[in-house]
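Supplementary notes for students who missed Thursday's class. We covered one full example, reproduced here. Read the sequence, then the structure, then the short commentary at the end.
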Amino acid sequence: MSKNFDVVVIGGGPGGYIAAIRAAQLGFNTACIDEWQNDKGGPAPGGTCTNVGCIPSKALLQSSEHFEHAAKHFGDHGISLENLQIDVAKMVGRKDSVVKQNNDGILYLFKKNKVTFFHGRGSFGKAVEGGYEISVAGKTAETLTAKNVIVATGSNARALPGVPFDEQKILSNDGALRIGATPKKLGVIGAGVIGLEMGSVWRRLGADVTILEGLPVFLGAADEQIAKEAHKAFTKQGLKIELGVKVNAISTEGEGVSIAYADAKGAERTLAVDKLIVSIGRVPNTIGLNPEAVGLQLDERGAIVVDAECRTNLPGVWAVGDVVRGPMLAHKAEEEGVAVAERIAGQHGHVNFDTIPWVIYTSPEIAWVGQTEQALKAAGRAYKAGTFPFLANGRARALGDTTGMVKFLADAQTDEILGVHIVGPMASELISEAVVAMEFKASAEDIARICHAHPSLSEATKEAALAVDKRTLNF
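Structure (token representation):
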């Protein structure tokens, strides 16, 4: 017998569970379907982000950063340690407990907001009068009907052609988070967010890490000046980053992995490693969704086709997050989830792609919002730039972390903030001020005139805004 709902959300990741909660808050009888399971077979909502992405990677980054501080920096504070060791199994266990806390937290939020949760794989059955039939394949098969369906099925790691993930030697983000002991040599293909973060974790714990990147420039999506500063810092730390490479063949014969590649000059090289992380992007996940049953349109990449408001080609069917166009970011998915729930309720949900922040949680952290200097040059837009180094910031000196800078880009005539780029300590937190400012169309002068606490890292933001007008006070 079919169970009827106003809204059914397929997928319990950041876009899906947030959409379900907001829909329930708006008075809709809402269900959420998610198939992730823990090692005991129980439900583990939260999607890639919670289970094998954002949350566990930050847990490992924090643990490895503590270890590196103890090994290399505690002495500067007068703290001495003997026989320093890392228990990788315990570190991974802590990561797993952090993941479980988030899984359980989402289940609690469903209960609190009266969202009905179904553990299994959701798929389209057929169109019915007034809505759609959705099948749930789990321990107990269920059939649901809903007037509105929100697809939030996320994305999967992209594998190299002919080189599938075995999660033992050839690792996706999932396998990279489950390494049980520090490898002597670790290879990473792709110098993006995942590659840099996972490479940093295992480099801190003693691995010899080499990152191979196909693009000729480092972090091409970031501001060029910021990317160069980050590259310099990572290289100094011991990450080996090769740009402009072409991978020719990968062999897993024997105990390790052998990568044959051509370097930027065309010379043939071979890299032998114990494990290889492949982080070359992600692909939309519609596996098992059965879109053809209702005529749901996909594009050539396999993404669900939506308009600017996340409507699909079918009435009452919406899609959000990694499975549609736009940046594959958890917070973008969340905002779309909220906006769609509000649009179903007849409200005017809003997502501004121009003010979505980007963050890489390495050390130094990298964060930015808005346009890069190279993009402004390419567009022919007149702008002013201002930078301020953390080296001149009192709080950064006290922390012992003075790498990097804050950079402001503002319109040459109006002084409107066009982009803010940060490489340095706590960039992930500092960027929020810039997001708020840009959302309200603030000028660099506005930030320069606002009182910032002293001593604080945020003073570097104020000083960079002052630098746009060439009037920094502390540099």
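Commentary. The radius of gyration is 24 Å. The chain has three domains: 3-157+283-351, 170-280, 355-468. If anything here is unclear, bring it to office hours.
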